[in-house]
Design a protein that fits this description.
34% of the residues lie in helices and 21% in strands. By secondary structure, it is an alpha/beta fold.
Length: 283
């Protein structure tokens, strides 16, 4: 888990992992063709491992990096050739420009991958294909390019009767602040933007949300993450009495994450209350 043990993980989450989400099975995908874009990321690799454990699933994992079939979602001809040839029953779009500060600098790249890339995929799937977009809490009342590009992609997918798995901050993804903190010697202080507030989910919860969405009716779904957590509180849980360097949020870092946008509401709960279907006034 990128150096994060279960005690640290649950300290960050402020709760236990949701076992009903992490233990979902994949039998409904047997004898089906599943295409994944962006498979080389942390979530993609964990999802590929999950699906590969069921040998009856016909899986095509793609990315522009790593040991996967090459697929660049911004290249319309590449998308057309790959998608039409495989003709998936399910397409999971994990490809994304996810680095919020970089999105404020290279805005068109972020828009190209997150929004135009989604368009290219939607235009080349057949009527049988169930399309799933993975999105971000930053699309709720977006303040930055990353969130805005994902919100547009969400609207396109929902308009085509696809589904959206909207993630909160996934703790164990590569390059996260906890990985950075864990790599700093104990004798040195950690950098901390204490006023920032975040919702968190685990890597296995993000994969479970994907599996859930594939097996349920179209819509926008989130993990019921719990209350906002201040980064100062997280740092105290992980490193009691550790010295800190107080820093300002970076350009592109929101001070406070949104659970839902001002136009959204809870439509229904699933798996007890672990997963929420979210409706918008604009759906």
């Amino acid at each position: 888990m990128n150096g994060i043990n279960i005690q640290e993980l649950e300290g960050i989450l402020g709760r236990k992992q949701y076992s009903k989400i992490t233990n979902l099975d994949t039998s409904f995908l047997e004898e089906k063709k599943v295409l994944i874009t962006g498979a080389n990321g942390s979530i993609g690799n964990r999802l590929v491992d999950k699906l590969k454990s069921n040998e009856k699933i016909n899986l095509l994992a793609t990315d522009i990096f790593g040991d996967f079939e090459y697929l660049d979602v911004t290249d319309s001809e590449n998308v057309k050739k790959t998608v039409k040839k495989f003709d998936p029953d399910y397409l999971i779009n994990l490809a994304g420009a996810k680095h919020a500060p970089e999105g404020e600098i290279d805005t068109f790249k972020t828009f190209s991958i997150n929004t135009l890339g989604t368009t290219n995929l939607l235009e080349n799937i057949s009527k049988k294909t169930k399309f799933l977009l993975t999105s971000t809490c930053k699309s709720a009342n977006p303040e930055i390019v990353y969130g805005a590009s994902k919100l547009i992609a969400e609207r396109m997918v929902l308009n085509e009767q696809g589904s959206v798995a909207r993630f909160f901050n996934v703790v164990e993804t590569s390059g996260n602040v906890f990985e950075i903190w864990n790599n700093i010697p104990d004798s040195e202080p950690i950098d901390l933007a204490p006023t920032c507030e975040r919702h968190f989910i685990s890597l296995d919860e993000s994969v479970g949300l994907i599996i859930f969405c594939l097996n349920n009716e179209p819509g926008r779904y989130i993990v019921n993450s719990g209350p906002l957590i201040k980064m100062s509180d997280v740092a105290e849980r992980l490193y009691p009495e550790r010295k800190t360097n107080i820093i300002a949020p970076r350009r592109g870092d929101r001070l406070s994450e949104k659970f839902l946008s001002t136009a959204e509401s809870i439509e229904s709960y699933f798996l007890g209350t672990e997963i929420i279907k979210v409706s918008s006034l604009h759906d």
